[in-house]
Amino acid sequence: MWNFLTSEGGGLHNHNVAVYKDGDRHFAGLDTEYKAYVRQQTMVGVLPRDIKNTLHLKTPEKPQLSSTQLYNETRKIRQEVRGERTTAQQMLALAVEAKYVHWHKINSETKEISHIFMAHPDSVKLFRAYPYVVIHDSTYKTNMYKNPLIEMVGVTPIGSSFLIACSMIPTESEECYSWLLKKLADILDVTGASPSVFVTDRELGLINALKAVFPGVDHLLCRWHVKKAINVKALKFYHTESMKAFVITNPEDGWNNVINAITKQAFQQAWACFSRKWARMSAYIGRAWGEHAGKFVLCYTNEVFHLGNTSTSRVESAHSLLKAWLKSSHLTLDTMLFLIHGMLEGQHSKIKKELEDSMSKPRITSRTFSLLQGNVSTMAIELMEKELLRGLGLGIGLEDGCGHVLRTTHG
Q1: 197-200 and 133-139 as β-strands: parallel, antiparallel, unpaired?
Q2: What is the per-residue pLDDT across 96-153, written as a single tens digit (0 to 9) for each?
Q3: Per-domain boundaries in the chain
Q4: For domain 88-222+313-349, is the CATH number 3.30.420.10?
Q5: Which end of the chain has fewer CB atoms within 10 angstroms, the N or the C?
Q6: What is this structure's pTM?
Q7: What is the DSSP annotation of 233-250?
Q8: For residues 193 and 130, what is the distance between their CA atoms, to the nearest angstrom?
């Protein structure tokens, strides 16, 4: 058998011994300059992988650091900041320091935190001023505990979104959602106000909890999610994209005619045509969505004060922004709150400027509403201008063709 360690079995190397220069040890400890930079970046929430990439760009002449070195150093820095506290205790300390409205619940068996509710003080002020619309959805892969992160998003008079609160719960059950919604209601208790509408996906535990905690509040289902679910089922039943499109968009008896009916009579007629033509689809929709039709069909949603929000797209955007800030799916509680806090500080500064600009720098394109300048938001004036143009287009048929939708949906 050939001996790869010797030459002809004589115990001699068959190559020259490699010579390593001093300082080329890749796993040596971080030098003082590196440590200072890593500490600075860690304290403002930059993740180790981003610190590593920046260091390589800043100092290409130095040996590259390993991921292990960076993670060990950042872990040591965070441990120094926490002191004797656990990550959960550190999170709560940060919440108190930043004056968050917060609640948590302890699991009686494991003695660990099982439920968390956090609301930035400026988010609370915005919610109490503009409580009308709450858009609710869950996102995943944000933390090392693998718990869903719930985001609740509100809407300002200028049309911007703001994060009302975020929460972590162990399961998406009715019991967990009830706890969360009761905490949301507690924020508004001092004002006596209540949301006008919740917009969510079809999460049965959440739907039941909403009925119990906010019994008098309207509830809409995300129209986009409804359409997506029905598109998937149509493709399964009819096998080809072209056939699916025909079932959905056919101008005579397609599903779009049903979901976009502008009167209840038109809805009944469209549903009857759809059911006659597409029996399998209508049977599925009746079972899965029939009892919820009033929460997503246009003629019913037009009767709800929702400020133009009939989907969860705003909270989907909030998910994207949040994950862009977090940049990891394995964060601890204290690191999550630290990064979310930085995101919210920027969001609130932007909203404050937009609200001020809306009053001081109105964009009036018509003299019709010029006297409202500085008294209502520019978004309100823009909506009225569009309605005015629509009314002019309707002409003598204004009364029959108006529908007064803007008044019911926007107040």
Answers
A1: parallel
A2: 999 999 999 998 888 888 899 999 999 999 999 999 999 998 888 777 777 888 999 9
A3: 88-222+313-349, 228-301, 362-410
A4: yes
A5: N
A6: 0.79
A7: HHHHHH-SHHHHHHHHH-
A8: 9
